[in-house]
């Protein structure tokens, strides 16, 4: 048995209100780089469904930049570590790892000769440092700022120069190597958020929370002028130059991006977004012919120079951990729900996606299950809602549950069974029919595909409880006592022959449905941490389990002593949250890293 990755539907950038996001660009203009969690995402601009994920940082990543040669990427994290790794090989072999200071890295930049890197941020002893990329040796102190440094840049030509922008409202220039403080600019009245040299090195731009944008002569450090009066009504989070040095793109918290003519310092175009807080623009990047911006929501906008009111394209998805997973009846559309309450639907073949619209959950989506024409979801907001599969919009259905729902299943005749924190609710056509109190804190639920049996996993008592659903009434049939940990998921096989259950004590147990005898005597306990999710193949011959240990195991029903253990190859450093099979040989996995991966499984 073997496996290979077919697709990665990548996470969006992780954003934070009031904080700038730094995007990295491929020197060839093909890819963009951004950080989310422990991952650095490399994403194709023309085809965003093509992505690669680097996951070797042990703490949360903050920024990544290509070397001017394009052969290496330097990425940094909140601990102050900088990793330099190869871009030409799929394995992304590590070249070097350095720690210029202890503390969060906010920005970094390469010198044009690929030999030096400046790293800035919130260090405990210093706010910035310049190192050699090959050895990590010091080539200059970034001294003079009294508060953390948000942004930095290397002049792209000789003589070497460095500029930095800080929360002490100043911009400083350093000459070298070795680099030493030369000059301070104090035109900004609030935090300086972005500083960038023009591609030819003749000018540099500085932008701050005061909404102001200034241009300076890169040789004499004199101000050329202020762009706009001010440039934006809100803080400016990002500045990016056009490749020909003639234009500037800015992104602002006033929910706009603006395109400026450098020669006249006049406005060419204003790109307007919505009126919500999540429409604030926290970053921008000019890559070849593409003008990109990132909203506070994490959406990546492709700006249209010819139509400032509507982007050419918006890349949507998730930037918070994925907590639930569903599938349309034709298995062509995936549905994913996240920690922040949003549900996204994905075309399985292309990766194209959009967000489900309408009045959804205000908090984490706990579980989802497909009915005849709707996808039913439950959330921490204590509601059950329905998504119309024809329109991919939330319907008017919104039923309040008596306790926080943990799992949802669709039984025969489109009847819903909801496992709540302290009860089990039966719903039909948007109305609660019965609500049975229980004391074992249900975690999950599954309905037999043909019979009246319903399995509910208990958190407190470590038992799987089997009920018979007669009309809208649940009656207790039996309890399964083989588990030694909280039941985390239960799933009947599609043909109704088996029930699989997994628990927090690493165990997966297979029962024969209806009689609930053990299907075999083997110990399926190969995970090394809590098992989170179960999914069956359509032919009921194999099942997959995903775990807190970051691994997935494919189990065989006919040969229970055989399995595929592909631990740490799916979502490195991220637990597996949900699984579903598209067909007998294609598995979808989601993780706390917000990524969706599609795997091709071969059994022989």
UniProtKB/TrEMBL annotation:
InterPro entries: WD40/YVTN_repeat-like_dom_sf, WD40_PAC1, WD40_repeat_CS, WD40_repeat_dom_sf, WD40_rpt. SMART domains: WD40 (SM00320). It comes from the Eukaryota. WD repeats lie at residues 54-95, 185-226, 229-270, 315-356, 480-521, 527-565, 583-604. Signal peptide: none annotated. Keywords: Repeat, WD repeat. Belongs to the WD repeat AIP1 family. PANTHER family: WD REPEAT-CONTAINING PROTEIN 1, WD-REPEATCONTAINING PROTEIN WDR1. This is Actin-interacting protein 1-like isoform X1. It comes from Limulus polyphemus (Atlantic horseshoe crab).
């Amino acid at each position: 048995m073997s496996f290979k990755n077919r697709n990665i539907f990548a996470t969006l950038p992780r954003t934070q209100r009031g904080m700038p996001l730094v995007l990295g660009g491929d020197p060839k203009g093909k890819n963009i780089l951004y950080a989310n969690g422990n991952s650095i995402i490399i994403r194709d601009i023309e085809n965003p469904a093509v992505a690669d994920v680097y996951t070797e940082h042990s703490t949360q990543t903050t920024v990544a930049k290509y070397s001017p040669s394009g052969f290496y990427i330097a990425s940094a994290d909140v601990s102050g570590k900088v990793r330099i790794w190869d871009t030409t090989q799929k394995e992304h072999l590590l070249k070097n790892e350095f720690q210029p200071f202890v503390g969060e890295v906010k920005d970094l930049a390469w010198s044009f000769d690929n030999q030096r890197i400046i790293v800035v941020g919130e260090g405990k002893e210093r706010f910035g440092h310049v190192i050699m990329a090959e050895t990590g040796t010091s080539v200059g102190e970034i001294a003079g700022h009294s508060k953390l440094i948000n942004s930095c840049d290397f002049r792209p030509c000789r003589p070497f120069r460095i500029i930095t922008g800080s929360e002490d409202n100043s911009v400083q220039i350093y000459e070298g190597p070795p680099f030493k403080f030369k000059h301070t600019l104090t035109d900004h009245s609030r935090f300086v958020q972005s500083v960038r040299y023009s591609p030819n090195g003749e000018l540099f731009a500085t932008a701050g929370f005061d909404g102001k944008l200034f241009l300076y002569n890169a040789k004499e450090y004199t101000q050329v002028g202020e762009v706009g009066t001010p440039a934006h009504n809100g803080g400016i989070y990002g500045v990016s130059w056009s490749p020909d040095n003639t234009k500037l793109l800015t992104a602002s918290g006033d929910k706009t991006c603006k395109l400026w003519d450098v020669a006249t310092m006049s406005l060419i175009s204003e790109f307007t977004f919505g009126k919500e807080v999540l429409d604030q623009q926290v970053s921008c990047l000019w890559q070849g012919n593409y003008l990109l911006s990132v909203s506070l929501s994490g959406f990546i906008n492709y700006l249209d120079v010819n139509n400032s009111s509507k982007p050419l394209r918006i890349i949507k998805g998730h930037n918070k951990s994925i907590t639930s997973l569903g599938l349309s009846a034709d298995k062509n559309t995936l549905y994913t729900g996240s920690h922040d309450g949003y549900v996204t639907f994905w075309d399985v073949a292309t990766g194209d996606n959009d967000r489900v619209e309408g009045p959804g959950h205000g908090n984490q989506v706990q579980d989802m299950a497909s009915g005849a024409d709707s996808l039913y979801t439950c959330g921490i907001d204590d509601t059950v809602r329905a998504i119309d599969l024809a329109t991919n919009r939330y319907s008017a259905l919104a039923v309040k549950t008596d306790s926080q729902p943990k799992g949802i299943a669709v039984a025969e005749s489109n009847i819903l069974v909801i496992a709540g924190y302290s009860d089990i609710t039966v719903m039909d056509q948007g109305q609660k029919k019965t609500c049975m109190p229980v004391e074992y804190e249900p975690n999950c639920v599954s309905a037999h595909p043909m019979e009246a049996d319903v399995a509910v996993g208990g958190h407190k008592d470590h038992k799987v409880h089997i009920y018979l659903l007669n009309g809208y009434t649940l009656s207790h049939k039996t309890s399964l006592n083989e588990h030694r940990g909280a039941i985390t998921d239960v799933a009947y096989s599609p043909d109704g022959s088996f029930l699989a259950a997994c628990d927090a004590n690493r165990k997966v147990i297979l029962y024969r449905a209806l009689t609930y005898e053990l299907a075999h005597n083997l110990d399926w306990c190969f995970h090394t941490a809590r098992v989170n999710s179960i999914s069956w193949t359509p032919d009921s011959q194999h099942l997959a389990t995903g775990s807190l240990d970051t691994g997935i195991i494919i189990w065989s029903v006919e040969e229970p002593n055989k399995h595929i253990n592909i631990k740490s190859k799916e979502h490195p450093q991220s637990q597996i949250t949900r699984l579903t099979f598209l067909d007998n040989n294609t598995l979808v996995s989601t993780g706390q890293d917000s990524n969706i991966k599609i795997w091709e499984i071969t059994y022989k």
